[in-house]
Design goal:
The protein is mainly α. It has a domain of 28 residues. The longest helix is centred in the last third of the chain and has 28 residues. The radius of gyration is 28 Å and the shape is rod-shaped.
Amino acid sequence: MAARKNKKRRSRPGKGTQDIRHGPTRDPGPTGTVGCYIVLIPMLVLGLAIVLIEVFG
């Protein structure tokens, strides 16, 4: 029985294995930055409140 030939993977010309694959970006967009501020501002307020309670309490 004859051995099967190994099929080589056909890659597109100009595409090496070291190339960066450009998939969908992780850019959150304008709603993502608003959500970031919604989380960031209360955290800062809580931190400031804790510091003030420790200093003046």
